[in-house]
């Protein structure tokens, strides 16, 4: 979701990360980045105009359909109604994934049609932000592009549409060419064009999606997707070897060394696990490779310390804020499912759905829907952990 619009060459940024789980202070070297869009994830900034209704034992398809009904306009635009009625490429990608997840070909075509008409750049990547009738920031964000590419490939198979498969492969090829880098431990996904250049690289751990990389690799035959699976797993393992939870942002050196950061440029903020990082267990729990699933499972014990799980934690698992979000419970559900605790995972998915209904926000509702479809069904990926149980 996060998108940087320019590349700054910082000097040396030193970040002292105090984590209660016995984690040492970390030193950050020079790299580029600017302010990010993560603040928009913290919740509603205006009334989304959605009347809460009781959530009672809804199925994944019902949860997904409710997201499409409430947050997608008739022309296919996914609207952040709680954030000024703008649209971001990530939202269009989420809409595409949900539409294919619930098997709604008409909704998929409408969302993809609006996306191609309004966000697709000359190079094939998606412009990040649209508002008031026009693109206001045309820099792409790699998580949105790979999610959209995955959705297109899945839709091509689900709807018997080779044209969609080809479009997904083509979009994925541009991502590989423009927004990846090779390290000694494997290839990694850069967050955007702004992050290109020499090591060390700015890195968002929650952008890596092994299941997506595998699906795009199977569709395209391009070995670089396998390299991304390997490199992302190595970097994620390194992060979780250092800290109980991943940070929203990090820095990756050429040798694969990883340092947590408070923000994309490392210059401000608090190093924490929150609205970005919580997507990581969801990305890894749905992988078909047990090594990836094990990484998601590592996070379950620390997240299970809380009944009312805060959205913002430090890297040792201590609360740093009082925000409640469906994503927090969806992320814990993913970790629990990966660890084989199906009942706890199902309970947390239900809690995520209930919170998305009682306090509707674009971001929280999107992830409540995606989590249900990824973890408790086989419509998005072949290895849904709760489906397997």
CATH architecture: Alpha/alpha barrel
* Average pLDDT level: 89
Q: Give the low-pLDDT segments.
A: 1-39
Q: If you consult CATH, what is the topology?
A: Glycosyltransferase
| Number of discrete domains | 1
State the order of secondary-structure elements, H for helix, E for strand.
EEHEHHEEHHEEEHHEEHHHHHHH
Per the principal axes of the C-alpha atoms, what is the gross shape? globular
Helix fraction, binned, reads: 40-55%
Within the largest sheet, what's the order of strands?
3-4-5
The total count of helices amounts to 14
Radius of gyration: 19 Å
The largest β sheet comes out as: 3 strands, antiparallel
Class per helix and strand makeup? mainly alpha
Distance N terminus to C terminus? 31 Å
Q: What is the number of E strands?
A: 10
Tell me the β content.
Answer: 5-15%
CATH C-level name? Mainly Alpha
Topology of this structure?
Elements: E1 14-15, E2 26-27, H1 60-71, E3 87-88, H2 89-102, H3 105-118, E4 129-131, E5 134-137, H4 142-158, H5 162-178, E6 180-183, E7 186-189, E8 201-203, H6 210-220, H7 224-242, E9 249-252, E10 258-261, H8 279-285, H9 290-297, H10 300-303, H11 326-338, H12 342-358, H13 362-375, H14 385-388
Antiparallel strand pairs: 1-2, 3-4, 4-5, 6-7, 8-9, 9-10
Helix pairs in contact: 1-2, 1-13, 2-3, 2-4, 2-13, 4-5, 4-6, 6-7, 8-9, 8-11, 9-11, 11-12, 11-13, 12-13
